[in-house]
Amino acid sequence: MKITQIDIFKLNVPFQYPIKVALGEIAGAENIAIKITTESGLVGWGEASPCCYITGDTQATNYQTAQQLAQLIKGKDALAIEARMTEINGFTVGEPSIRSAFDMALYDIAAKAADMPLYQFLGGEKRAIRTDLTIGIQDTVAQTVARAQSILDAGFDAIKLKVGRPGLEDVVHVAAVRELAGPGIAIKMDSNQGWDYPTAVANIQAMQSLNLQYSEQPLAVWDVDNLARLRDKVELPICADESVFDHHDALKLIRAGAADYLNIKLGKAGGIHTGLKINAIAEAAGCKCMIGCFGESRLGLGAAAHLALARPNIVFLDLDSAYDFKTDPVRGGMTYDPKLGGVIHVTDEPGHGASFDEAALTDGIVV
Ligand SMILES: [Mg+2]
């Protein structure tokens, strides 16, 4: 099924709550939308949400690279995903966000050609899936508690607290949210590399009674030796996020004994094609996965939700970015349950089920 046209757009949507993490701050989505059209008339949509301090790419670089990737695959078979993603991943070792947008659009086309929702195309079936909601580190303790209260009021059963403040400053935030939430709410924390080894040990030990779910990326990306040492030292499970972009990283982390869980993000992995490989390596090692996000709309998050449905080894979901979008540029696709906070529904439309309202997109280029 020959690719006849690729449309490239920018998508900018502010968040209701800008989110600050140990590495930087995100005030809104500065994304790229990709529409791949085939000779059969089938169209696939993909989305990139670059986060330069993690993925090394930006909307501007993705916009440029997208034009080169479009030239690379135009005229070729959209259904030969292995071949197309080998070309796309071989074009650059960088730009994972835009590679994931092309991957997402190709999987959308393939599932539509099979007349199946994407989760089914990937061999999965529906099960209950539910995301947490994230609180950044920009707030005072009182503000953190107020934000947690609003999340609980919305019916969520899991809160992700960004941490990584200096010294033991995080402890009072996490303790206050646990006291508010009571024992039945899952609380996980994500340091985004903000601690060094001694600070991580001190914080995790100081939070020992708070019944946390896991500590995500406590140490710097490069500090795999200390991550393994930390995992030996503390009882709390360790989840690797920024340390695992692709399947090669996954294998290294598992061999090093450095992680209990791996966080798959399509925007790090360059899409579903490599995300499946990360999960396979994790599963072979008895390691569960979470699936996370950057600043994707419901379209990009929906593709991730379909992957989670397709692989039950993916047990934790952090697909909350679109929850705080000020406007919704997406038609169809995954939705958040209006009553059961965090419960995600995907449609049984073929593909990932979503498209963009092109009126919400800007700077369109046709290749
Ligand atoms: Mg993370």
The average pLDDT score comes to 97
Could you tell me the radius of gyration in angstroms? 20 Å
CATH superfamily of the largest domain: Enolase-like C-terminal domain
Q: At the first level of CATH, what is the class of the largest domain?
A: Alpha Beta
Low-confidence stretches: none
* Helicity range: 25-40%
Bound molecules: magnesium ion
Q: What is the domain total for the residues?
A: 2
CATH architecture annotation name of the largest domain: Alpha-Beta Barrel
Range of strand content: 15-25%
What does this structure look like?
It is a single chain. It is built from 13 helices and 16 strands. With 367 residues, the chain is α/β, with parallel strands linked by helices. It has 2 domains: 3-115 and 358-366, Enolase-like, domain 1 (2-Layer Sandwich); 120-354, TIM Barrel (Alpha-Beta Barrel). The strands form 4 sheets. An 8-stranded parallel sheet has the order 4-5-6-7-8-9-10-11. Strands 3-2-1-16 form a 4-stranded antiparallel sheet. It has a two-stranded antiparallel ribbon with strand order 12-15. It starts with a strand and ends with a strand. Magnesium ion is lined by residues 190, 192, 216-217, 241, 263, 292.
SSE arrangement:
Blueprint: E1 3-21, E2 24-38, E3 43-48, H1 52-55, H2 59-73, H3 81-91, H4 96-113, H5 118-121, E4 133-135, H6 141-153, E5 158-162, H7 169-181, E6 186-190, H8 197-206, E7 215-216, H9 224-233, E8 238-240, H10 247-255, E9 261-264, H11 266-269, H12 272-284, E10 288-291, H13 298-310, E11 314-317, E12 330-332, E13 335-336, E14 344-345, E15 354-356, E16 362-366
Parallel strand pairs: 4-5, 5-6, 6-7, 7-8, 8-9, 9-10, 10-11
Antiparallel strand pairs: 1-2, 1-16, 2-3, 12-15, 13-14
Helix pairs in contact: 2-4, 3-4, 6-7, 10-12
Bound molecules: magnesium ion.
